[in-house]
Amino acid sequence: MGRQFCRAASSIAVVLSLLLLYSLTSWAAECSNRGDLDVQFCDENGDLVADTPKESSEWLDPSTLVFSYTPVEDPTVYENVFTEFMKYLSEKTGKRVKWYGAESYAAQVEAMRSGRLHVAGISTGPTVFGVNLAGYVPMSIMCKGDGTFGYKLQLITQKDSDIKEVKDLKGRKVAHVTPSSNSGNQAPRALFKNMGVTPDVDYEVNYSGKHDNSIMGVANGDYEAAPIASSVLDRMITKGVVNRDDLNIIWESDPFPTTSYGFVYNLKPELQEQIREAFLTFDWKGSGLEEEFGKQADKFCAITFEKEWNPIRIIQKENNTVYSQEALNQMKVKK
């Protein structure tokens, strides 16, 4: 009886495996262009993001939209920052809007990939992971009235440090943020290498998990230096969390795009347009967004992943970045 059961179970497993293989093969045959996108997505129009499903039966139209902001500093603090915007998003879509305080970049991408997250602000580097692994469609960015936006990678040290330039990092203990972070890992790996300093070879990399952890770690002497996002440092100085006089900025890059905002690819097209309109027409005056980000931006501007994220994709390609489940797991906070 036991042997018969095992043989039957084995046969069922083989059949299921063949069905899965056939399904994936059929799926691949139906898609003429995928690029770096996961096998479940398709990019027929070549804009580098997942196409909205052609069949209306595959569209997602939830009664409650779940919104999340990139996990910088304390996620619960930013729920209050986005309160007015979330209310406006609810009015524009006719949906309830619920906050999701993600604890890591990976948690955001995994939540969207599993269908638990619909609208999000995702940090610069992880945006590419969100696009390729979760069907994320970036469509806007915080900007100034003249349409300009961006932040810089800054290399910081303690005020009295003997590290004066990038080459002095050799033999030191340096904080990077997470593997997927642009300014906190991907960009310095590409740019520092071109300046003769290779992370993990010429200096010890310690992942802090978040930009604010790297900044406070340098200020407190836990790390000798750290590549960080200028926008995060500016906000922490404004809030009085860190003293500007305790730090030196010994090198900085040209500007990169900041956090992207967008939605998951399979939302109902009408809902996608309502979300897009909510971002691009929201009035920041008197809102938590103005209070928090007012010195850096005063509205949302339209962007495309294909154009504005081109330099980020180049950096990740230079670093041989692979968009896979294993890579996604490495995005989780490391202490």
Descriptive key words:
13 helices; D-Maltodextrin-Binding Protein, domain 2; alpha/beta; three-stranded antiparallel sheet; 335 residues
Task: Give a structural overview.
The model is unreliable at 13-27 (pLDDT under 50). The chain folds into two domains: 56-149 and 258-329, D-Maltodextrin-Binding Protein, domain 2; 153-252, D-Maltodextrin-Binding Protein, domain 2 (3-Layer(aba) Sandwich), CATH 3.40.190.10. A six-stranded mixed beta sheet has the order 2-1-3-10-4-11. Helix 6 links the parallel strand 6 and strand 7. The chain is built from 13 helices and eleven strands. The protein is an alpha/beta fold and 335 residues long. It is globular. Helix 3 packs across helix 9 and helix 6 packs across helix 12.
What's a quick, concise take on this entry?
With 335 residues, this protein is an alpha/beta fold. It is 41% helix and 17% strand.
Supply the number of structural domains.
2
Biggest sheet, strands in spatial order?
A: 2-1-3-10-4-11
- CA radius of gyration is 22 Å
User: What is the averaged pLDDT score?
Assistant: 90
